[in-house]
Amino acid sequence: MEMEAWYMDSSAEDQRRPHRLEPNQPASLGALEQLGVFHRKLNADIYETDPELEQIRKDQGYSYMDIITIHKDTLPGYEDKLKMFFEEHLHQDDEIRYILDGRAYFDVRDKEDRWIRISMGKGDLITLPAGIYHRFTLDETNYTKAMRLFVGEPVWKAYNRPADDLDIRSKYMACLQGS
Questions:
Q1: In the CATH scheme, what is the code of domain 4-178?
Q2: Which of 60, 100, 119, 173 sits at 20 to 30 Å (Cα–Cα) from 125?
């Protein structure tokens, strides 16, 4: 199934719901790429030996990798972690996630500060650029297994919005103006 993205409504009800506008307003891969968000589809059934994934890791310098299973039975402090992941934030480094199983959403801000929800499923690899405001949540299945990739040692620090004074945010905004 192809990755799907759309502009979100402003409802505050359950974050795991799709929150599509009525009528639906899709966001294209091209629109996401203009924001610096890139997507690849890989074969998650062979992630341990996948030559395509190995090539991506080599080309991008993703030297660190781990796997997280987000489900109430596997993640200590599950509800608190979900709340934390859903706080609007940015990072100093790119965020790279590869969905190995289950489903999840990444929400990113567009140039007009509107939310775009990106529906991720098995085999979806996404790169969010350093400095982009985003958040993460599960969908209503309440389960995903994801590979986290990093260049060098992982830095888990999230800077909750507002973080507009950070250099990385200024660099990101400058890149947006140029695209």
A1: 2.60.120.10
A2: 173
